[in-house]
Design goal:
By secondary structure, the chain is an all-beta fold. It has strands at residues 5-8, 17-20, 23-26, 35-45, 49-58, 64-75, 78-89, 92-100, 106-117, 120-127, 131-132. A 6-stranded mixed beta sheet has the order 2-3-1-4-5-8, with no helix packed on it.
């Protein structure tokens, strides 16, 4: 499909997905004490530009959030981080960036998100679905 873009968000085998055209959307609704919502998304266009987005929203009382986001490539059966980035925020945080990727590999975004409330914190790993380009 010439000029098509694909949007892929977190994939978990035990969570339902909705598919509309070229969009695949799956949500992770795992209960967390401090993290109200978190997501990692991957989109790769036909020119090999990978757009990644990772988000975290804390519950009321959360004073700081962090995202450490990794673009990973599947090599020899293992996920290898090829690009990384991070960002911190208050109750909500959103990390977005783009990278060029070569053809012939599967890719995903794996993000470690963290929410702080008082002296306690909670950490979660959020993976996007994999996408072959």
């Amino acid at each position: 499909m010439l000029g098509a873009s694909y949007y892929i968000s977190p994939a978990f085998a035990d969570h339902p997905s909705s598919i509309t055209g070229t969009n695949i959307v799956q949500e992770d609704n795992t209960y967390m004490a401090y993290i109200a919502r978190s997501q990692s998304n991957l989109s790769i266009n036909t020119n090999g530009v990978a757009s990644i987005s990772s988000t975290i929203s804390g519950i009321a009382g959360v004073t700081k959030t962090e995202i450490n986001s990794n673009l990973q490539q599947l090599r020899n059966g293992s996920w290898t981080t090829i690009k990384s980035g991070s960002k911190s925020g208050s109750r909500d945080c959103n990390f977005t960036t783009t990278y060029s990727v070569p053809k012939g590999y599967s890719y995903r975004v794996s993000s470690v998100v963290k929410a702080y409330k008082g002296t306690s914190s909670e950490t979660k790993t959020v993976n996007s679905a994999s996408y072959y380009y």
